[in-house]
Amino acid sequence: MKNDIDINKIFLKLKKNNPNPKTELNYKNNFELLISVILSAQATDISVNSATSKLFAKNNTPESIIKLGENGLKKHIKSIGLYNTKAKNIIKTCKILNIEYKNIVPNSFNDLIKLPGVGRKTANVVLNEAFNEPTIAVDTHIFRVSRKIGLSNGKNELSVETDLLNVIPKKYIKYAHMWLILHGRYTCTARNPNCKNCCINNYCNFYQINYK
Question: What range defines the domain where residue 72 resides?
Fold first, then answer.
């Protein structure tokens, strides 16, 4: 595990390279964000944005999605993986939002994870992006990058999330998950990571072992 000095330097470097990191999902309100994140499971942000650009043009509230119906929704998202299950979950979620939350996306982790199709990662993304909560949403990129760098030795997403929340300085927590996601997406890729041009390679366990 990294020491506090190196961890601070890692996130200082990531911040310098990208001071205000943003999700690559396109959305205009909290509901659109929630639906986009549900759709993004095992799918690329590009494919989600392609589908939601047309979907949200006329259907960007729980009520409008409910009126669209499951079959109608499937027509908009059929290019996205697991679209049958996602359509079913989204319709159920919209009905819950409509009846129990007056069409407003809740800002509570416990309320969010009760929604069909919303797991821990999705709830944390929504809390971070929509409500500025200092959460860490651990996806495959963060899981891989955190272990390679030496920020966590966790064996599963929850343990990695716990480690990151414990070791990352509070001043960096708000943007930490997005910095790590983008780093894993474009630099520290699963195949052929661009280690030699990585801005934090001096502090990375993987780089030190394999290239020095």
Answer: 30-131
